[in-house]
Write a structure and sequence with these properties.
By secondary structure, the protein is of the alpha+beta class. The chain has 6 helices and 7 strands; from the N terminus they run H-E-H-H-E-E-E-E-E-E-H-H-H.
Length: 191
């Protein structure tokens, strides 16, 4: 049946984060992020716009680049609504010193993004046949299956198993502070 959709057309990580923070679960039952790859690009581009070196992003900068992106993903996963995180696919290559060999595919986003949701499907279309490879299913019902021309009927058995409430997301700053205290206490014992 037809339903109302509110949309935000942006590739800005800041704008999406602000919009997600303002979502009222009494009004919106589903959130779709399409494409999270654009938001990951935005996080890296924000840093790239500040840097003066053309040598790429230094190792020590990745923490500050990832923090707002990962906070958005954590907030999405903690919301009491259904969340679809869509991302573009990229090829993964291995270099044996002589040639590059394609060894697989992954989501073009921060490396842990695809591992966070309860269910991860990789979709593709060849000759007008859509397939969904179930790469992750915490319920175990669909794990490893290949769905041909998938529909809601394919995933409907999962709905009662997922429950209504997800685990609450931790405040990352509080978690880091607690872990820092633990490490400081261990260092103190060792001294």
């Amino acid at each position: 049946e037809p339903f109302d959709v509110d949309t935000l057309h942006t590739r800005s990580l800041a704008e999406v984060t602000e919009a997600v923070a303002g979502i009222d679960p009494a009004v919106h039952g589903v959130v779709v992020i399409d494409s999270v790859s654009h938001l990951w690009d935005a996080a890296m581009e924000a840093y790239a716009g500040k840097r003066t070196s053309k040598d790429g992003i230094p190792l020590q900068a990745w923490g500050s680049i990832k923090k707002p992106y990962k906070a958005l993903i954590a907030r999405l996963l903690a919301m009491p609504v259904h969340v679809f995180i869509l991302g573009r696919q990229k090829n993964v290559f291995e270099d044996d010193g002589e040639k590059l060999t394609k060894v697989g595919v992954t989501m073009r986003a921060e490396g842990e993004t695809a591992y966070e949701p309860h269910i991860c499907l990789r979709m593709s279309s060849v000759n007008n046949v859509v397939t969904a490879t179930v790469e992750k299913d915490r319920t175990g019902v669909l794990q490893g299956k290949l769905l041909i021309n998938p529909s809601f009927a394919d995933i409907e058995p999962l709905i009662p198993l997922l429950g209504e409430v997800q685990a609450p997301a931790e405040d990352e700053d509080e978690r880091v502070a607690k872990d820092g205290e633990l490490i400081a206490a261990e260092d103190s014992k060792a001294a």
